[in-house]
Protein 1
Amino acid sequence: MLFDNWLNDDSKIILFDGGMGTEIFKRGIKLGKLPDLLNIEEPQVISEIHKAYYDAGSNMVQTNTFGSSYLNLQNYKLEDRINEINEKAIENIRVSCPNGALVVGDIGPSGHYRPPVGKITPEEWFQSYVKQVEILEKGVDLWHVETISDIEEMKATLEAIKKVSSKPIISSMTYKKTKRGFFTIMGDSLEKCITIQESYKVSVIGSNCTLGSFDMIDLLKDMKKITSLPISIKPNAGKPRLDLGGQTHYDQSIEEFADHIHKMIDLGVKIVGGCCGTSPKTIYEIKKIIKSISRS
Amino acid sequence: MTLEQFYKEISDAIVELNKEKAISLANRAIEEDLVLLDVIEKGFGDGIRRIGDLWEEGEFFLPELMLGGTIMQESLEILLPHLKKQGEQVSSGIVVIATIEGDIHSIGKTIVATMLSANGFEVYDLGADTSAEKIIETAIKKHADIIGVSALLTTTMFGQKKVIELLESKGMRDNFKVILGGAPVTPSWVEESGADGYADNAVEAVKLVKKLINK
């Protein structure tokens, strides 16, 4: 399939999408408790944002389902609407996806931690993700598991996807930078996380969120030492700043962010995009870089 | 064994996350009628501070922080009734803490609350999705020194400012120090919202609260 062709084409840099939250804001929508609910309440806005990313040059864009696993919906007392929210997410993105581009099923963290931090069990994680994956399976081309901060939760997620689907998986965890290197907040090293992710036969190893584009360059260097699988990177665009009118701004310039992405492409990253604070403008800027590289 | 060695043993038990040992040492301190304030400060307190240092060094992570905090809390629960018999006050200060209305993210706030209790503060944790009114009401009732307001989302962050505005409108802004927490909080937001400070993580939060209370 198309995604595998891209992976096998050494000259291809795959352009992913950027953030969702700030885009919703820009369109004057007052965010309720869960952005995923807008799949139902403001479907045209969500479709428009997806389209803006495809138009900016994204080869693939992910569904607005980051928080739509059973456990996370339960946090908002929305678990009864799991079918509706995930099904509408597919409809909203399918109408925006042009020929030759792909739809990625987005799976985010449950918001629950295992002991001693929280009380969740691996089985509860697994069941929760199976429910979401079963609904999304018919409408997506591949998977992106992202922002997972516990390798145990990642294992449960990957087991859930493998149970239901045989589509490719991008497996992205979120790391913090410590004096001893990159670790999850639960204390698992980058090496441990990657080795376990590889054992699940994922197609791509990734990282997103927490770190900005500058720190992600170092993370990528470390990742390259550990894995020979393709790597996906979606950094944050610095820290958000809220003005007195309640509008969110990100202080890092798009040019600086894109420049860091350029460095990562030089280091051999396969898939690039952005996380919190990035926009279709960011993606367009990266698109220009990718174009200039393929010309030379 | 000298007293210093005994304190060191307690501190080590906390750092080794050895609950049974920590509890048994707490009981031994009571049986031997030691000055419990010293036992808490030089033994248990030292251990929890070392856990904070190990977090900063990247040696300890969330599980160790939570486990250490919980062992500390359980040990304090054993010691506190006896401490009162010795006529001592242990509370370093009173903190009311909550995640703001509209935001259900509670884990960071819970960790901060655990670490504050472990450091001897009297903590009232109101949970997640809590209104500014309720936070202030509780702070007044409990004679709090510090109000801690957490928000993970840029969309709910505005509620942190609401707490401060509400305090101002009641003419009570100077009665409490207000601190903010949550991933999107920055120094500029602290300034814009008129808060007294923020911390990036639970270990920093303990330092901040200590600093504000001693002001």
Protein 2
Amino acid sequence: MSDWDIIIQEWPRFANGFLNSVVLFVASTIGAFVLGGLMVNGLRSSRSIVRRAFHFYVDGLRMLPFLIFVYLLYYGLPSFGIKLDAWTAGLLGLVIYHSAYVAEILRGSWDQLPNGQSESAQACGFYGIKMFRRIILPQLILNTAPILGNQLIYMLKDTAFLMIITVQELTYAASSVQSMYFVPLQPFIIAIALYWAVSLLIEGLVALVHRTAKERGFGQT
Amino acid sequence: MTADGFQMLLEGAWITVWISLLAIALGVPLGLLFSLIRVSRLPVLSQIITLYVSVGRATPLITLVLFLFVALPAIGLDIDKYTASVLTLTLNTASFNTEIWRSTYLSFPKSQIEAAQAMGMTRGLYFRRIMLPQMFYTALPALLNEMTFLIKASPAIAVVGIVDLTRVTNRIASQTYEPLPPIIIAGVIYMLSIGSLVRLQRVLEDRRKRYASA
């Protein structure tokens, strides 16, 4: 049996690992955007104490390697009696960690947005959450599409770290096929090709958003 | 945590430091070389670099290190886990550095090149004397930023059995049965080293802005 035959025979394993990676990626993208969108309001709070606390938290997280943060959740939290399974810890880690990056990207963009935007939104009767969701956030996302796209690729790559805490994602699948049958090349080539395919898809989507943004006069970057 | 635990943490930190530094020292000039091949549009080679950058920035380090550690010996290149790790980090950071150098090169003011040509400088001479020093200062903040990403991704090398600053926390916990203290201390060490790189990046950016406005 050739090495490729083994890959075909073990295909369900790859499909399952890939599916898990994609689910983790999509779920954490949604989570990180929601949480990041909430946190950017904290980063720009008019209360200086709130603002500083959020900056301290966001900057702190961004200086931490993702894996150490996952270790804190997976190995550290049981010390406080909170025991998470690998999947929950991994997903929670992805969402919390990357929401800090998303919040910081959105803040940078919001700082450049003219004040007149929110003033005229308020004059039209948009306040609070409604103003943020309908007027501010769409502009922030259109303005930062390429940077957010980069962040999505980092998020995709960080899902692979979760194999260390035994989440059965794509790299885990490749690694187990490799060690089970001693095929050195093919499993990881498949895995890398799949990661690459997803990243090309992300880049395509980002290019699409960026083009729309440019047509509407957004996106200096 | 015991004194023994601290010593283990420091040893782990040292491994993270030297492997990362070596990868940076190799990856920055390699990125420059690759970017020059790309902007010079050398046939075939230039396309290969484009493909390498695209695949390289999409590949998780953990997947790449496992691949190289298993695949290279299989095709006859006998490497140990340390070589595999340095190679992985270098290949990864070089793909990002290629893009940084390339955009720096492309944004270099044409007027300076024309002036250098008017002075009779040859291509190699003005690249070395005029472009490269300025490109270095322009690219430095972005290169530093990439270095912080390299350090943050470096725990991936633990998967081939290297006891770096992240993995060592497992070792200590298996002796003390208290996982939290070593993880927190390791986190603080990472934050201090990445934080100082971020600070350096801000200082350099401020200085450049001042020069630009002067």
Protein 3
Amino acid sequence: MQDLTSQALQFITLDPLSILFLFVVGFIGGLVSGFIGSGGAFVLTPGMMSLGVPGAVAVASNMCHKFPKALVGTIKRFKYGQVDIKLGLVMAVSAGVGVQLGIQIQHMILEKWGQVGSDLYVSVSFVAILVVVGGYVFRDAVKSARSCGLDQVCALALKLQTINLPPMMHFKTANVRISMWFTIPVGLATGMLAATIAVGGFIGVPGMIYVIGASSLVSSATELLIAFVMGLGGTINWAMHGMVDIRLVLIILGGSLLGVQLGAIGTTYVKEHMIKVVMATIMLIVALSRALAIPKYLNQLGLTNIDPAMVSVLNKASFVVMCLALGIGAAIILASMWKARREVHQLAESYAEA
Amino acid sequence: MRNDETENHSGMSGEERRKILVVGRGSAFSEEVMGYAIHLAARLDYDLLALCVLGVDRQDAESQGNRALKAVRVFRGKADREGVRCGHVLTSGQLGSAVEELNHRVKRIEFVVVDSGVDRDEVAQGVTIPMFSVISHSLDSKGDHDMASEHITQQKKPVGKTIGFGVLTASLYAAVFWNADAVMQTFTKGGWYAALPVATVFLVSFVHGSFAHNLWSLLGIEANQKPALRQTEQKVIQKKKTAQKRPRAYAYVNPFHRIDR
């Protein structure tokens, strides 16, 4: 991050089309993150860069829009009794440390293999983690969909909860008592992933579900608190280097504050396994998108020799698939919310008739 | 006596589950008694059995029966949403004898929950069983039903608030974009000037966030009210269920005790 200030800053001029793009992606990203705790960033950052925003400004502006959005989402879902503040703060602090660790690793790789190597590392870890974790979440979602939508606590979490390794921590809302030594690694991993691929929630939420043993409702809500704390810290850091483009932030926020509330409302209607379904779907499609970008880096490293025209097609496809991931996630949320809402209303109506 | 009985849901093979008998007032269940019974059943991991006893008046029998069926369907729907199994019995005649007969026929009714307005002495005529009465406020002075759904639909729409916060949001955006170049220059100076963008987004998150909140409720999109307690409750039930799976040694005083199942 040291050489950021030396980077020539150019803030883009905004045209109506790019304003619309940012607003819509902000709304959909907000909807998804209000529902599963994170999301949107993976489309927004490359999206802004494709509009001509310099990388550092895109990352900074994305982070600056993330924390107010997460704040609004956290407050909303706290009112529904879904946020475990203690768990969120413990996770956020350890994730903060994880971010620093992640940055160090990035630096090491950058020094050893250069920019392309670093990009390749990011993409490969992206694909590997998302396929493994996303696949597991998906399998679990299907399983709990079959058992009438009730969340089953994972066997690993139950096992870890029985190990009495002081200091033990009790998380009231999540209704979990677990050793600090199992909580902190989840936070560290979240932070490291956030530093590497900018979406810590893809590890944080499954971590809280399968390692700590919180329900998916509480995990996704608590992830919003983590995102707020980390986003605030990150934003202050970036803003001190003067990297935040407040215009971009405000346009994205215009959409995402609407979306995040809708997503949060959605969690009160749908069955709990829907959170896992949406998360897994998005993770797997994003993994596919990143996999499409890998040939470019392999080419640049001289490891393969794929036709440049092909590579550019793949690159474009990668971005389209990424947008698709977000769009499909949002569609599932809206559809399941619509269905559940109709059921509730039908119930109320038939009761009024009776 | 006319009996129209639907047994509990499938998946009941194996051990007979414990039940709470819920007695409605005539052909209706108040919101309170449904809520209480479902809540309790979920916590105790019991099943529910809803009982409607219709009057003996022949003329009104059909419409009464239809109303009771509807009420029962609502009840079962609600129970289903909370993952509680619920069966129902519609019958006509005397309340006391209906409960007595049911208590003989259906195994493991642990206790009875009755709606307010139900004569408890009559229910307990022929049986010895604990009974809880739910005081229901959704019945007006005449004992008629006050539509519970009205509470939901007749909420005041926050029109004024939405407009107020909308105007505030718009002016905030206008203030930034009117003078975008100057704002950008000051906001990106770095150092202590970092406080400016951070403060701005906090302000926006409050103003625009409130606008968005009011806008959604104006459009009728609001959270489905579920008590927060339910979240932890599910986990308690879960724990109980896993605990039950542990192998245990049972000593039956009478080895033929469970042979009739």
Protein 4
Amino acid sequence: MKFAGQSVPHESARGHVTGEALYTDDLAGRFPCLLHAWPVMAPHAHGLLTALHVPDGQQQEEAAA
Amino acid sequence: MSFAFTLNGDAVHVDAIPAQTTLLDLLRSRGLTGAKEGCAEGECGACTVVTMRPNGAGSAFMPVNSCLMFAPMAAGQEIYTVEALAGRGPLVAAQHAMVDHGGSQCGYCTPGFVMSLFAEQYRAGREGPCGEHALSGNLCRCTGYRPIRDAATSLGAPDADRFTARMALPAPNCGALEHERFLRPSTLADCFAALATHPDARMVAGGTDVAVESNLRGRRFDWLISLEALQELRGFCESDDAVEIGAGLTLSEIAALWKSAPAVWHDWLPLFASPLIRNRATLGGNIATASPIGDAAPLLLALDAGVRIAGATGERILPLDEFFLGYRKTALRPGELLVSIILPKPFARQTRFYKAAKRRVDDISTVAACFALDIDDHGVVRRARLAYGGVAAVPLRAREAEDAIIGLRWNESAVHRAQDILARTLHPISDHRGSAEYRSSLAQNLLEKFWWQQQEEAAA
């Protein structure tokens, strides 16, 4: 038990204190053209999903379904 | 239209960026993702960065919420993010302390804590270990505050290094700016001209309220006129008769300037938002935004403040009591702005401020109250000011209750008499911070608390 009673630094501590640790939103900007998923709640409690449509007026490059 | 500022020691030019983009978003878009967005309203401090501010002939590191600064506010400034501390080299002391004391768990809030702690360690005139209160604008939801406090208190004076060398040099001077629909005039005359050209413009000083409106409510302004470069709003003058405080001074600047401030100011200051907000928020802004739960109004009303208002055609002075006309509505006419707040002397001998909120610090009040009494040698009330926030659409003085206790001996029966009137005359609303009944009880009980504390003090 060589670690018992010893104070061991958090393995990510350096990343945390320097800002180098990357979180989801930090990664988003590092990948151009990254597809973002956006959950949408169903308006019907027991609906059957038959098709997905890109909202009207949105370009194909801006939204995917 | 573009602007420039110094970022982590390098000159940065920013072209075409919408004026209401936050400094945080600008920094993150440049790959500096150490500063995070937690709340976008200056509560969590995960977005903390440090700006250089003048300090005598040199300068000081001042931590601020980058989510509450519109990007053009950075024009001409010198800003450091967490990435500048260690660079690719060894950790600085504040970072080391957080590592050694286990001050991070998920780590999301950590860069913000590090920046506040770094600025506190290098704060000019600080003695002994770093104080935990410097971190009261930073929230952590998993590590727990004990290891973070341990990290703070382990830090003493900084070693001479590149940061202390930087402090010996002057801070940049922020001048006039025109960027997109963001105007920053550098003279009052130019400001009046801008207000005349754009009568619907929103005036903004520190931005700690306007940016919340922008970030969380999606409010978009046709024009923003920044008051930050107006030296005319930054005066501080104390005489035997009064203290006159420039409306454009930040709370932190006032604290540094007002050496002879009364005890109630020192009680009140730590309860005003957070250190990060106080480094940007101006006293004038807190008044002009006219929030019924602004922290400054009850204090200033109890101290009988007046406000100096200027327009293109001249100046006028109004009692603060007559300044708040309705919910977020003030006596400022189109084209006018707040120049200073005037506090007449002598201050009441017995004055206390109370802020009831869900957190002790770094929170918005449910009810705030400030009581100021002059009691003569016979124990009789000669002058009374009972000022409240959070009990109506405007901050107000409970005049009927004040009048009722003048001439009475200040005892429990006088307190109850005032409480009965407060119960009848104050009409707070119910919202997520508290019900109308709770607020009414608070308003009454705070007065009783004031009385009991006076008894305790007298007995001590």
